[in-house]
Design a protein that fits this description.
The chain is an alpha/beta fold. The chain is built from ten helices and 15 strands. 49% of the residues are buried. This is NADPH:quinone reductase.
């Protein structure tokens, strides 16, 4: 039997619950794609899964909601062998084994092709981060050139990606951080204004944009949502995307009291199909041309997965954490 190395989680626990072992290498059936993984990014939802939070997934499981690599098998002919691809969502790392491995089998619908000479450590950072940022800006906020955007939770990987692509699209970007020392990280990503978040930023935002921002992406979660709504203009939109606070619900939600008059509240949670191949390719081409940057916080070898998860849990690194395979 052909085997591979994989990172397996037998049940909820701390970072040390992630163990590397030899497991059977999966094979693809028609409608599926076997990907030889070269790198994968870490995501907050994988931290929640490891901790046993939420109702999704089962154990034992190979975690990981995304991966980048090359096609090893595509029995249905959807992709050529050797094609560079990104895979994300579609149950990865939750109901099916995910990207923390040397190989993964995913539905063809979860695969997005690309072609790039960038290093795999860079490519591994992009897919889910870009999908979430792109979807939050377009489907969520419906941001247009000239708009102002508040990114609540700006030093997260998605927050930094939002700053990059929002600036690329001609928006005025306000981004928050709890640590004033990280202001330069936000400015380097494209933030025009940095707001230090002490739990209440609406007044500070309105000193910069008196009428309130055109749109906001909420990445901190439920505890910050009411204040983010207060920072947003009438007919502006707040998109609830992230839960860095690990608090997902608003207790005793009474809409008329909670929502300011005329401020819209929506949400975004996307799949691979929400990241068009042209958007991914265009972003990677822009990175290769030094027109935009990928906000990578740190790159780890496969064997350092425990340290990588410990760093993610501690919030020790600003930007996307990436693991290389092989």
């Amino acid at each position: 039997m052909t085997t591979m190395r994989a990172i397996v989680l037998d049940g909820p626990g701390g970072p040390e619950a992630l163990t590397i072992r030899e497991v059977p290498r999966p094979a693809a059936e028609p409608g599926q794609v076997l990907i030889e993984i070269r790198a994968f990014g870490l995501n907050r939802s994988e931290l929640h899964f490891r901790q046993g939070l939420g109702s999704f997934g089962s154990f034992p499981r190979v975690p990981g909601i995304e991966a980048t690599g090359v096609v090893a098998e595509a029995p249905g002919g959807e992709f050529a062998r050797g094609q560079q691809v990104a895979a994300m969502m579609g149950g990865m790392g939750r109901t099916i084994d995910g990207g923390y491995a040397e190989y993964v089998v995913v539905p063809a619908s979860s695969v997005v092709p690309f072609s790039s000479g960038l290093d795999w450590s860079v490519l591994g950072a992009v897919p889910e981060m870009l999908q979430t940022a792109h979807g939050s800006l377009t489907t969520g906020v419906d941001a247009r050139p000239g708009d102002s955007l508040l990114i609540r939770g700006g030093t997260s990987s998605v927050g930094l990606a939002l700053a990059v692509i929002a600036k690329q699209r001609g928006l005025t970007v306000l981004a928050t951080t709890r640590d004033a020392a990280k202001a330069d990280v936000l400015r380097a990503a494209g933030a025009d204004h940095v707001v230090v978040d002490d739990g209440a930023v609406a007044d500070a935002v309105r000193r910069i944009v008196p009428e309130g921002v055109s749109g906001a992406v909420e990445l901190v979660g439920a505890p910050a949502l009411r204040d983010t709504l207060r920072a947003t203009a009438v007919h502006g939109t707040v998109c609830f995307t992230g839960m860095l606070s690990d608090q997902w619900t608003v207790p005793d939600f009474y809409p008329i009291d909670f929502l300011p008059n005329g401020v819209r509240l929506t949400a975004y949670s996307g799949e691979a199909g929400d990241l068009p191949a042209g958007v991914l390719q265009g972003f990677l081409d822009a990175v290769a041309a030094d027109e935009v940057s990928v906000p990578i916080g740190r790159v780890y070898p496969f064997d350092d997965i425990v340290r990588a998860h410990a760093d993610m849990e501690a919030g020790a690194v600003a930007g996307k954490l990436v693991v290389t395979v092989g």
